[in-house]
């Protein structure tokens, strides 16, 4: 029978770095069940796509109390049945770990990393049992260390790092790093923040720690004391070009290009790559409150074996996307001008997404499982990002509340109520929570606004509200493939627009994306078409745009190779759209008041 002291124990070791295999021994106490069902989650909270972690489980077997082999039957893609006859069971298995991301498990010659959703089998019906975790670094790597936000327990005599968790849900919510790394720590308002960077590059940890201090302080102050954490771990996996972040209850896992971070001895100027890293840290830390504690009602106890649908991701990822950069300008990490440049780039990305006119932010949230996380070259024409549109909705809501309340309320007020009423007890928010809070606490009706921009496909009418905070919004023509927006024009504006993204090919250029409503779409160009010639001249990206700019014809002839066929298309000559945004300040006092400077 199960007792209060019963626990499930996991012992993790490195089987082979070269073969990328973790070994796990799982000890299950005697339970009243005649057979046990073991399962692996299909998805990890915070990343809304079925990832089928069970596909990486290999060589699973089980024995009973007397070391006799027990029958194991695979029930489906992620569940195994063990005939236990109510006795204690030991399960042994391996996990293939070669996914360099923040969502799964990875093992190489330099380090190992895993989320519990990839390594820890659940005992169905008994996930409330306490979990004990022991992790042993490889014996051939004596300098490897283990880091996690799990509660430490006394280490055993076999060289394991030992931890304890209240239940299975906690055990899978603390990612683990094993390997070579550099670390530093900072303390902000009584909370210790540990910064870990994989490997041993010359990253300037002291500088990053100092730059993160005010950002951490901002979030702690916004949500008020007591903080839900006493120690927080930033795990940064340094890579060549990777990028990503995933929130957990007392930590985050980040993936970032190593040389986009400041190196010891470099200039104190903040590069765009470094600013993006600080924004990423800000974003994931904000989730400690807003996602890990404040969460949609359906995510309070989610079923990790199947999709869990909600309309609310625009609130959670969108609002967090608004605050990640806002925190940087509030604490002086970036200037108001730099903040508006970043905001202009976000508005540009949204304006250049034709799908924003087809899919609402609420629908984007609901369809995250099948559309947002499974994009292809045509997705830009059919979907909108709930991160991107949600962040602009949050900006509009902040400006609307400030205007309607004459500065008494803002989005900060909404966040504080969300925390007090839904975050502290993790009770879960209903779909209409934002409109309900504004009506009940501020006597402001925002339902019409939300109906248009969140549940409908209207653009957020920023032109109506930005002047109230001393900012003007402008539109201009894109000035080249690298033009992300956010800044005024710095060269003569192109007259014409192709409406397709190209990459160089051995002969001609290959089409990688076509946007609806523009010239390339009208011509009938498709993704993977190879443009061989324009008006009989061999095509290059530069020449194609030069000829398009110089012509006085209404249409140009394209020679295109499509799936081995040579076809001719007529490319209409169309004026360039003004779909690049930038913002300017005309009243610094109003801007400083808005940003809380």
3D architecture notes:
The protein has 597 residues and is of the alpha+beta class. 27% of the residues lie in helices and 27% in strands. It has 15 helices and 28 strands. The strands form 6 sheets. It has a 7-stranded mixed β-sheet. Strands 22, 23, 24, 25, 26 and 27 form a 6-stranded antiparallel β-sheet that branches. Strand 24 (530-534) and strand 25 form a beta hairpin. The longest helix is centred in the middle third of the chain and has 19 residues, at 205-223. The protein is globular. It starts with 6 loop residues before the first strand and ends with a helix. 42% of the residues are buried. The mean pLDDT is 95.
Write the layout of secondary structure elements.
Elements: E1 7-16, E2 21-28, E3 36-39, E4 57-63, E5 72-76, E6 79-82, E7 89-96, E8 105-107, E9 111-114, H1 116-119, E10 122-123, E11 130-136, E12 145-148, E13 151-153, E14 161-165, H2 168-171, E15 176-179, E16 181-188, E17 191-198, H3 205-223, E18 231-239, E19 244-247, E20 251-257, H4 272-286, H5 313-330, H6 336-351, H7 361-366, H8 368-372, H9 386-404, H10 411-423, H11 433-442, H12 447-453, E21 471-476, E22 500-504, E23 509-514, H13 519-523, E24 530-534, E25 537-538, H14 541-550, E26 555-562, E27 565-572, E28 580-585, H15 588-595
Parallel strand pairs: 1-11, 17-18, 18-20
Antiparallel strand pairs: 1-2, 2-7, 3-6, 3-10, 4-7, 5-6, 8-9, 9-15, 11-14, 12-15, 13-14, 16-17, 19-20, 21-28, 22-23, 23-24, 24-25, 24-26, 26-27
Helix pairs in contact: 3-4, 4-5, 5-6, 5-9
């Amino acid at each position: 029978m199960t007792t209060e002291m019963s626990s499930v124990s996991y012992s993790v070791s490195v089987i082979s770095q070269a073969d990328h295999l973790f070994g796990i021994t799982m000890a299950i106490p005697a339970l009243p069940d005649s057979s046990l069902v073991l399962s692996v989650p299909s998805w990890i909270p915070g990343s809304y796509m079925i990832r089928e972690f069970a596909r990486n489980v290999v060589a699973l077997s089980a024995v009973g109390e007397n070391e006799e082999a027990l029958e194991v039957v695979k029930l489906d893609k992620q569940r195994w049945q063990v005939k236990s006859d109510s006795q204690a069971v030991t399960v042994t298995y391996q996990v293939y770990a070669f996914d360099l991301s923040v969502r799964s498990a990875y093992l190489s010659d330099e380090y190992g990393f895993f989320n519990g959703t990839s390594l820890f089998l659940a005992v169905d019906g008994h996930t409330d049992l306490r979990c004990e975790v022991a992790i042993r670094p490889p014996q051939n790597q004596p300098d490897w260390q283990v880091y996690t936000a799990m509660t430490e327990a006394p280490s055993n005599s076999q060289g394991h790092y030992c931890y304890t968790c209240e239940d299975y849900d906690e055990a899978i919510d603390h990612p683990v790093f094993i390997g070579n790394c550099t670390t530093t720590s900072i303390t902000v308002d009584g909370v210790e923040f540990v910064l870990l960077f994989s490997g041993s590059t010359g990253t300037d940890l002291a500088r990053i720690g100092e730059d993160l201090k005010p950002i951490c302080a901002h979030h702690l102050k916004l949500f008020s004391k007591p903080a839900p954490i006493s120690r927080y771990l930033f795990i940064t996996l340094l890579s060549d070009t990777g990028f990503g972040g995933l929130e957990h209850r007392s930590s985050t896992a980040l993936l970032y290009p190593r040389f986009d971070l400041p190196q010891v001895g470099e200039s104190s100027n903040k590069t765009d790559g470094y600013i993006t890293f600080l924004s990423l840290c800000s974003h994931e830390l904000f989730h400690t409150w807003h996602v890990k504690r404040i969460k949609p009602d359906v995510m309070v106890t989610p079923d990790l074996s199947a999709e869990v649908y909600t309309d609310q991701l625009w609130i959670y990822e969108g609002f967090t996307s608004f605050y990640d950069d806002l925190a940087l300008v509030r604490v002086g990490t970036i200037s108001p001008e730099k903040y508006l440049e970043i905001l202009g780039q976000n508005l540009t990305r949204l304006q250049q997404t034709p799908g924003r006119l087809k899919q609402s932010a609420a629908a984007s949230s609901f369809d995250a499982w099948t559309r947002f996380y499974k994009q292809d070259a045509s997705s830009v024409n059919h979907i909108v990002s709930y991160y991107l549109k949600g962040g602009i909705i949050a900006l509009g809501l902040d400006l609307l509340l400030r205007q309607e309340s004459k500065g008494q309320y803002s989005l900060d007020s909404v966040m504080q109520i969300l925390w007090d009423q839904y975050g502290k007890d993790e009770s879960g928010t209903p779909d209409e929570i934002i409109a309900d809070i504004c009506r009940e606490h501020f006597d402001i009706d925002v339902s019409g606004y939300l109906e248009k921009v969140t549940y409908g496909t209207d653009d957020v009418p920023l032109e109506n509200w930005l002047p109230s905070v001393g900012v003007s919004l402008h539109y201009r023509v894109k000035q080249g493939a690298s033009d992300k927006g956010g800044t005024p024009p710095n060269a003569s504006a192109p007259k014409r627009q192709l409406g397709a993204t190209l990459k160089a090919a051995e002969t001609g250029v290959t089409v990688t994306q076509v946007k609806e409503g523009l010239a390339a779409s009208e011509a009938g160009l498709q993704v993977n078409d190879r443009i061989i010639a324009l008006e009989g001249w061999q095509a290059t990206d530069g020449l194609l745009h030069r000829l398009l700019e110089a012509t006085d014809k209404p249409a140009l002839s394209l020679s295109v190779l499509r799936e081995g066929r040579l076809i001719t298309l007529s490319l209409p000559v169309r004026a360039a759209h003004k779909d690049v945004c930038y913002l300017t300040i005309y009243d610094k006092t109003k801007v400083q008041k808005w940003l809380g400077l």
